[in-house]
């Protein structure tokens, strides 16, 4: 059984092998949270309030947005920041609640695998999206596509 120090004993700083990683992680969570608020509310404003609102969202709407490099970068930043932010939060929860090293390792391995799959697939979708696929019905295509 581990010995617990007396409440009146002087504080002794224990040496850590992690350096400032947790501090930087904490700062990143605060900064990325603020940036994500701007990105998400900008996304919601453009998609839900501008123009015909939610009723205008279809293939052509997304194709028109992703034809612009601005919206590709906007959505890429939103994807990457949200995934890194969420992965870091879940990593912290795993470190706090998984008591066995093996369990912690398996859970974090699955977490990082899920992160990698979502980020790679999401990035591929954003940059390989063809707004004018051949053979698509003309009414579903964006206005700038030639049918």
Secondary-structure topology with pairs:
Elements: H1 21-49, H2 59-66, H3 69-97, H4 101-128
Helix pairs in contact: 1-3, 3-4
CATH architecture: Up-down Bundle
Report how far the terminal alpha carbons are from each other.
Answer: 75 Å
CATH superfamily, by name, is Fumarate reductase/succinate dehydrogenase, transmembrane subunit
How many independent structural domains? 1
- What's the level 1 CATH class? Mainly Alpha
Which short descriptors sum up this protein?
metal ion binding; 64% helix; 3 helical TM bundles of succinate and fumarate reductases; 147 residues; elongated; SuccDH_FuR_B_TM-su; iron; heme
Descriptive overview:
There is one protein chain. This protein is mainly α and 147 residues long. It has one domain (21-140): 3 helical TM bundles of succinate and fumarate reductases (Up-down Bundle). 64% of the residues lie in helices and 0% in strands. It contains 4 helices and no strands. The chain has helices at 21-49, 59-66, 69-97, 101-128. Helix 1 crosses helix 3 and helix 3 packs antiparallel against helix 4 (101-128). The protein is elongated. The mean pLDDT is 87.
